[in-house]
Amino acid sequence: MTQQQAQLYEGKAKIVYVTDDPTRVIQYFKDDATAFDGKKKDTISGKGVINNRTSCHLFGILEQAGVKTHFVEKLSEREMLCRKLKIIPLEVVTRNVVAGSLSKRSGVAEGVALERPIVEFYYKRDDLGDPMLTEDHIAAFRIATEDEVHTLREAARKINQVLCKHMSERGLDLVDFKLEFGRDATGQILLGDEISPDTCRLWDSKTKEKLDKDRFRRDLGRIEESYQDAADRICGEARQ
Ligand code: TMP
Ligand code: ASP
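That is the input. Now the predicted structure with aspartic acid docked in place:
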């Protein structure tokens, strides 16, 4: 059994610990919530437990579908054992429906379905406000090679297909979501981080009620209940 050891890194919603195996780390999920590059802060009671539960479940489903991820096993309510990665500092956002920053940037109303999914890249730099980058920027600044960007885009598309099917069978629209990838010691690119109501927009398919972090960002109330509802659906049986 891998023993939890020193803290390697503390982020806004998670802590990463080293283990006695140099190829493995533990992700610990906190209840802390931030938005707008850390300017809005609070805690959402029980969020860490929910986000670990949904992430472990979804990484398991993605692995079964042939997607390579950092997930090894769920260790406890708040802890996930992971393969150690060097995270590529990009937020890979995939969108199926217009919402959030795309609505602001394009002037298209929230809720309009896209003709085809869009994959976008943002530079993971809170101090710069996570600016959007093109593939040329990513290659020129040596954040990732052109081949790696191609791999990220294809992985995001595949993950979107698997997640859209899973969510729609549980009465949820997967509006958009953010992924992070990293390289293992051999340079292989794996999906890292988490997939949870913090990192996805999830709307009830019928009522379009928001069951995700927009309830926190936009002060919509019923935050804990909505996260719990999303988690129960994601980890539960298909409805149709
Ligand atoms: P956006 O519409 O604000 O660009 O967000 C797109 C998706 O990415 C949405 O599902 C929320 C998620 N996201 C994060 O997980 N972390 C972030 O820092 C941001 C800005 C968005
Ligand atoms: N978690 C991000 C931050 O604090 C933003 C977000 O998810 O809206 O910057």
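The chain has two domains: 4-85, 87-235.
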